């Protein structure tokens, strides 16, 4: 008799194919089919199922399905031992039933279990067995005409191939992995094209869950191909699409599993890119959603983060506990990861011997599992252990093995990492430093340039901090040891070039007031970008940070970095360099020496300086991180910018205290500490000599993020240096370094340098001045945090008299008959700004609130105009008001700024304090502004000093200077008069807190008008 599936209706009409010769499994559930048709059974074989009754068959089939369900549950819980036991039972039942489809399902699932456990050898064996049997079974199915059976085993082939995709990826066979993915997609398309009822619904992937799994596998391929930036973008898209189908009952369990898979992958991608905090958040979500061995796996990553937070003993204990649980479950791959993590922490604690034991235990498991990347990690770990013990030859041997393995894999981030490890060992050994330079320089440049591949600002920042940063920091130390100040200075120049935001040319944000409907981003290049597509987070914007252009060091000298970058491109497959070449120095002014200072934060802060009279003589100085921290401590204590949890009123009161800007002694101490910590002796001496020679020199500064708020003109000039680095409390020692009270302003005019990587447009044509003065903000009281900054103005107020004088000279915009009509308007919104800047304009003066509205990334710093929340823009509304961000400006049709701009608001020059300096300050430069006046900290309003109006004095001075021939010289001269008054009568109304924050970004002579 026949049991199981219905028998074929007709006998085979052809001889037994050669594929089935000698096979014990023919792909049909009952091998006594030959006897059923009266054929010679010898060629087909007869198996135990032939003797089963229908009831016995059904009972065993039900048991097999129940066993499979339990095996899947155990596998999901990462109980590998339990899952393997159940799948072995399932295979026994499949053989008794003579059901190849059931055995293939068990073996393909076993392949997945082995892979997830890190047992890569057995995973491959199981997956390849499935594919071999699939070929034989397909031949038998065609022979017997049982095509329904083919549809049953198709899913097992897909599962097995997905394991092989992962294995091929880990082994560096990316072509094979991509070919398997393409094959799965082709078959999925064919299934969907087949007639109705040809395949079970779950094989038609109605909600795209199977395709999303393939895309997760592609993320792994992208990582292995050296594209962590692309992998990160792709995984974010996958998680978004999974969220859209999470509530569909038919695929809810599959989506939950895929989400866990995608979150784990995102955590891995984030860790590779230095985003440790975000990776920990993903691991925390996974830990909370799982229990047992699954939770233990994710707990390892969390423990490593715990160690970074300082709790090393707790982290070690947590990893040991997790490893014990994983070992009991048979998850050998995770046990190896736990041992490796444990070894890393022990090495950090200085327990080298114990660390090596843990690494070697991990290596034993990786070798047994056939894990090639794991073996490479072992070599790196052993190299670090040997280096920690001073066994340099052994360390280099291990490092070279890791490098060879990385090269063979074709994974350039792995090459970058192993080369960095080798360079670190070579630097610590201290022998043959030129060879170390040959290794390290391309590593640092490649790591720095790759950052621009990330679309997310947060990812770029993390990569720069945790991947590119350590390489560049080590390179700077090596260049100092090799006495190569020129190369170090070029490296500082390139770091300060920053990069350019691009993408604004492709689409623009309509600021006319029409709120677009929600919908997808339009494909046409000339259409406006709808608000819904922009969202409220910078990373969602079409702005993309591109690498800086090629730089030119001086008329006489090319960049030494160019040849190193060519080598980096050859070794690490960097993207092609941009075509533009931009000079890094401004035009010299006859008879006036210009000093160029650029600071870069690379572990320590590094300064390079030179002058336009001698561009090829460069001076570089490392500024110890402790000195920078002390300077920041003093500055933060004195600055009126509110600290976290501090009100604006309390911040102003603190800033005007005796130890800050409220007394001459407090302010002078601040100026001296900043100078001693930030100005090297050779620079101070050269400044003094240049000033003594005649015309006052010009000091142009590009600060690093750590020094963005420094009032450079206020800094005192030391007469001698202290014998050691000063601690924050050594105020008495500070005084011994000064004979008088000379400040930088006394000997030089000061302005800011714009990053050379910011593309610039030509400025607007000359025309009337435009004024945006103290806009009324919807929903905000005049006395609230976003209230009036100028206070109540009347016809007799100095500022209004100044504006009346301007009106007497000619027209201004917006049109007004009296100066009072330009202040506290309700229509000063983005629509009016668009209208004003569409016409010729000589200067734009904004006085109001500036803030950071979203996060630490510059495209979300904003001006607070009179914009209602209903107007389109990239920032989330604040009640009835939507701020106008730098991203709004960059993406809008406002693509031309007047040559001179004033942004007078709270810390409007804070762009330089951002990881990516592209806030409202530099957005105006990119749009054409050649000179921008801004402030380095929060400005107290005139309400802080009753009876005086220092804010009005500031605005008048700025507008007057912008209307003059040389605004930088005029503003610095005005600040010198303020300094003289402060010295004569150090009272609150004359405090530098009102005027020292003022700074000019002067790009008039940079010759950098270029558009990407």
From TrEMBL:
Location of region: Disordered: 1-20
Where is composition skewed (Pro residues) in this entry?
A: 1-18
Which InterPro entries does its entry note?
A: TPR-like_helical_dom_sf
What name does UniProt use for this protein? CHAT domain-containing protein
> What organism does the UniProt record list as the source?
Amycolatopsis samaneae
What taxonomic ancestry is recorded? Bacteria, Bacillati, Actinomycetota, Actinomycetes, Pseudonocardiales
